[in-house]
Give the backbone structure.
Amino acid sequence: MRFTSEQRLDDGVLERRFTLGEIPGILWTPASASAPVPLILLGHPPLGLHKMYPRLVARARRSAAEGFAAAAIELPGSGDRPRWAGAEQAQADLRRAMEAGEPVGDEIIDALILPLVDKAVPESQAALDAVLSLHEIGGPVGYSGGVISIGIRLAVVEPRIVAAGLFAGSFVPRTMFEEARKVTIPLHVLLQWDDEGNDRQAALDLFDAFGSKEKTLHANMGGHTGVPQFAGEDAAGFFARHLRQPQAGARRQTGSRR
Amino acid sequence: MRFTSEQRLDDGVLERRFTLGEIPGILWTPASASAPVPLILLGHPPLGLHKMYPRLVARARRSAAEGFAAAAIELPGSGDRPRWAGAEQAQADLRRAMEAGEPVGDEIIDALILPLVDKAVPESQAALDAVLSLHEIGGPVGYSGGVISIGIRLAVVEPRIVAAGLFAGSFVPRTMFEEARKVTIPLHVLLQWDDEGNDRQAALDLFDAFGSKEKTLHANMGGHTGVPQFAGEDAAGFFARHLRQPQAGARRQTGSRR
């Protein structure tokens, strides 16, 4: 992990760009912290870190206000990272099906999502190795948003992730429903009730499939990009409940700070 | 409205019992308030105020901590109030169907719920008349919990209610789905995903039917009585957003206090 630039944002948050081998990433840490802080790994759609930066930095500032660090890495095939054989074909097939108003077949969804998950999850784990080796970051780790299938796989295979906020707004390969049953960490799932590109019933079925004892679905009105501000605040409360460190000699805080 | 007793709870909340004609009720007001406060009308299942008191007072304390008064009145046919012809028959029919594991027919649900709604809604409106005439209570009014069909009817017919938190955990007559389409105020709907006595799909259909532009569904794991503590905190945030008074000369607070 090599830091390539650093700046202080106006609210004191430290933003550092880094590369991890070939992979660019951004790490945000709170203005001041007296002890190693928890981390939220910020998922995002495969549109490139540059395009996603305004939304990522807003989420990172909110995390920092809660006392958490946040990190995001470029997804495989996004930004300047090389595409792989089949990715552009799957994207073209998806565009064609959606423009024709046809249902998007399982083969297209599998070709689009499964290789992305297979590549992105070990890279996310490598990023966790690197970021958690910094003295100012101690965990535990939450995963938030982005491609839901990446969140599902990470929740199953990565024990350092103790809670996940997922956005039920992407195509989900059928095999991921089986993986969803293996998830046991607390989940906070957002659903936009009128998401244009999303099958509401499939999202409800996926929520039902998760094996977690604590899982909450927050459904709000509006389309894919219309998540209301208060939904973000409820998600922040979820992470505060699950990531806040036990105080030395004090009971673990399970309530929110409201 | 005649006050019959008053006491200060340990957190300073003033609890006053009253009667409104034949109807007993309880009013809670915050320890101190410099201006007339908003009001939350606390709905509850038809088990009697006495039995419901521990849960009601907990909700009232939370409302008071947000700066809101809270009130509850005995439902028609509950506590010491007279039953009406058909009510006990409908309850017996319901018990029989549930014990036999049979589906509960529309006629039973209609006989159980529709007369209750027809009686309870004008009584709730009379209670609002009385409580809002007190100088220390100014509105706006939120409705919270209880029999969801009463909440639906009140949301349609009572303009002083500006926001409602509903619990999708009761039998809902088919005609109430039509009334649900006429609801336009902001809604916060709780659903227990594994509610034993509740049809999950019917609850989702009801949520879909509401005409409100702002409506949020919070689904949590567990049975009818297993609503997690953090769900109550999210509901408190909903009422804080919608009931908090505009400050003199200040912008209306639309954000939560977190």
